[in-house]
Amino acid sequence: MKKSFFVIGAALSLCVSMSTQAATQQKPGLWASTVKIDMGGGFPQIDPAMLEQMEMAGVELPFAKPVTTNICLTAEQVAQQVLPDLNDPQSGCSSKNVKRDGDNVSGTIECNGDIKGTGDIQMSLLSAESYSGVSNFNGNAQGVPVTMKTEFSGKWLGSDCGNVQPIGN
Q1: Which ranges of the chain would DSSP assign to H, the alpha helix?
Q2: Cβ–Cβ < 8 Å for 124, 139
Q3: Residues near 139 by Cβ (< 8 Å), separated by ≥ 6?
């Protein structure tokens, strides 16, 4: 269940990793996309010292701290100016009514699989080299109530993607 929520959060950050018609156009190249998921009262908070000890022991907790992933966008992908479809077959979640108005993106998330519920997405392209946004989701997973807030941001690292493959390849 936790993995599915991380997939949804990561997909949200990709919502703005593709450019659309707007005042600002993102730069092609390597981007760092950071996702921070807050599961509200559904999961206990971990003391930072305990978290550090757990990490040193090799224990990974995907909701304990922000996760950053590198994403590569080609010049062709940026030029296509199409918002991605954020479907996740594993969770049964997909994006709906995703729209861009200037440098702002909004939309909803609907989940009808193992996870059921709805949420909203709000994002702003801050410049050609950065974006930030937030989503909120309410529903249930396997009968357990879920309230999730996801904060995401991205920053352009440079024109060379190195060994990071472009999105969709």
Answers
A1: 2-14, 48-56, 75-80
A2: no
A3: 111, 115, 116, 117, 118, 119, 145, 146
Q: How many CB atoms lie within 10 A of CB 23?
A: 7
Tokens read off for 129: 């080299």
* Residue 86: closest CA among 21, 149, 13, 166: 13
Burial of 89 per CB tally in 10 Å (0-12, 13-18, 19+): exposed
Q: Give the pairing of strands 115-127 and 67-73.
A: unpaired
Which tokens hold the place of 60?
């990974």
Tens digits of residue pLDDT in 85-134: 566 777 788 888 888 888 888 889 898 888 889 999 998 989 999 999 99
Tell which residue, 54, 40, 12, 15, has the closest CA to residue 141.
40
Counted residue by residue, the chain has a size of 169
What DSSP character marks residue 88? B
Tens digits of residue pLDDT in 15-54: 544 444 446 788 999 999 998 888 775 555 566 777 677 7
Strands 67-73, 144-158: pairing is: unpaired
